[in-house]
Every structure is written in structure tokens, then in C-alpha cells.
Amino acid sequence: MQLTILDGERTTTVESADGTSVAPSDLFTATGWQLKPEGLCQGDVCVPVRDRGELLDGDCVRIEGFATALRRPLVADAASGVVALGQSLIQAGEQLHDRRAPDFTLQDINGVEHTMSKIGRKKKVLVVWSSW
Amino acid sequence: MAVALDELDAAREWVEAANPSYPCVIDPNHVVAQRYGFINVPSAVWIDENDRIVRPADITPVNDLFKDFTGIDSNVHHEQLRAWVKDGVVPLPVEEVAALQHIPTEADELARLHRRIAAQLHRNGNDEAAASHFDAARKLAPWDWAINRGSMPLSGGDPFGQEFFDYVQAWNENGAPGYGWGNSAMRSDNATTD
Prior knowledge:
The complex is a heterodimer. By secondary structure, chain A is α+β, with helices and mostly antiparallel strands. Chain A has a domain at 2-89. Chain A has four helices and 13 strands. Chain A has helices at 24-31, 52-55, 63-69, 89-97, and strands at 2-7, 10-15, 21-22, 34-36, 39-42, 45-47, 56-57, 60-62, 74-77, 82-85, 105-107, 113-115, 124-129. In chain A, the strands form four sheets. A four-stranded mixed sheet of chain A has the order 2-1-10-9, with helices on one face. Chain A has a three-stranded antiparallel sheet with strand order 3-8-7. Chain A has a three-stranded antiparallel sheet with strand order 4-5-6. The longest helix of chain A has 9 residues, at 89-97. Chain A is globular and about 50 Å long. By secondary structure, chain B is mainly α. Chain B has ten helices and four strands. Chain B has helices spanning 8-18, 31-36, 67-70, 74-87, 94-100, 106-123, 127-140, 145-151, 162-173, 182-185; strands at residues 2-4, 24-26, 43-47, 53-59. In chain B, strands 1-2 form a two-stranded parallel sheet. Chain B has a two-stranded antiparallel sheet with strand order 3-4. In chain B, helix 6 (106-123) runs antiparallel to helix 7. Chains A and B meet through strand 9, strand 10, helix 4 and strand 13 of A and strand 1, helix 1, strand 2, helix 2 and strand 3 of B. Strand 13 (124-129) of chain A pairs parallel with strand 1 of chain B.
């Protein structure tokens, strides 16, 4: 069956034998996190995994175990094959408390990507609007 | 930079009509709302040259169309913005900015995840499955307009219809929660120049 993983800017549909776990390579595509001997890693950051049994199901990574290991909220709809990963509330809280502007990369109506942090050393006003 | 908390198809005509000179990105998954704590539109956050937030995410009127409703005079905001851009004058002491951020709670985060799943299911034509996630999101974050009003076009509602006016009434009866510092700092009757 297929599982659609929603994580930040990413929406990724991958194969999942049981609808709850995915191949490590698919986890990387869907989340940017890699399973390594030292733990779960994204770039230079590695989070040790205390209980690999909770994280792994054979060769596959359990999405729920992944969320638990990174202390990220998770909402799953097993019947529909969709799972959404939240941000770490500890990290998000610290970032806003320190006034560090969260980065993001989104597309304009022509599909051109824009990354907030790439604007550079300028004053920036982020205006949020909608049609509703 | 402008960020549309909207579906691409809904935002497109507005962007084309405005034809802005600055980047205007589409955020159908409300990633920016999630990371900055935006709960309504139009809102803004100001970010300095070192990528530090100097004005937290909050309601920001573009003009005075909703002045009677919000009590916010757009001129006050515009003057504050000019003072910051030209002279580096920040509208709030730095130490107060941290305290005024919308730090997400677990309920806030779960509400946004339910909304995101619902929107995804809606886009795939599965409105039946989407409905329970829209409901869960509304229950978890009842006064988040981006979730409640923003979900109306995706769930058969009208964000300018009776459903919306009923929502505003209930929101008012609950003390109009969620309008942060801007509602006091930018009210024309409270505005100070120091």
C-alpha cells in the first residue's frame, strides 16, 4: 500500500508494506532524516536512538517510532494512508523565544522557489494573507 | 515577502492582479503559520538583518477597511514600519518580543497537523475522510482563524457567509482571544510616540 507523509514543506508518497513503516531511503526522501549507526541524522545533527526495537520493524523505520525518537507530534489516518509529522515543540519554542526567524522554502505561482534566509542581510517584512 | 495561506488556485488571481515586485509565495500547508505562530490574516512579522524577529507575528492591517472591527489604525503600523526601516526604531523592547511570540502548544501543533491531513484528503477528493480531521483541528484550536475560517473554502463552507459571522460572534463572546499585543499597541487611542 501507499503512505503519504506530510512533513514541513514536503509531501511525499512512498510504498509501505504495513502502512506504518517505510524503507530508510524513503524516510530520507520524505523527512530529510537518515538512519545511521549513531542514530537519526539530519545534516550534522544526530539524535541517538535509545530503543532501536521501537524504531525499526525489520529493515523499515516505523513512522511512530521516528516521531517518538525526535519528540515530534504525529497525527496519522491509517485508513486513508496519510501521516503528518509536527515540529519539535521544544525546538520551536526555543527558536521563537530566542527570536530566531524560522526558515522556509516555498514556491510562487510560477513554481519558482523562494527561501526566506537567502534574502540575506536586509530588513525583512513577512506579510501573511489569504483569499478567505 | 508575501505568504499566502491558501491553495494555489485560490491565490493565483490575487497575485496576478497585484503583480507584486517582491516575492509572493504560496503556503497551502500553512508551514509559515506553524513555524511563526500566525493564527489569522492579514498578519506580519518583522525580521532584522541578522534574521532575528523584532515584531512578533500578529494582526497587521494593510488599510482601515476593518478598523471598526479590529480597533487597529493602519497608519500607526505604517509609521512604526517606516521608523524601523529608516531609523532602526523597533516598536517593542527586544526583551518583550520573546514574551509576545505565539509559542505553539501541543494542541496548536496537533490542530495544524489535523488541518493539513484534512486539506490533503480534500485535494485528493476524499472529503468524507477530511471532515473528521477538519473537526478535530477546530476542536483543538477553536480561535485560530487560519484553521477555522481558512478551512471553510475546503469543507463546503463560505468564509464570507453566515458560518463566518456565527464564528465571529462566538469568538467575540469568548473575549476575542488571540489578538495579541498589536491590538493594544496599535490602537490609535493607545498609540504613544516616545
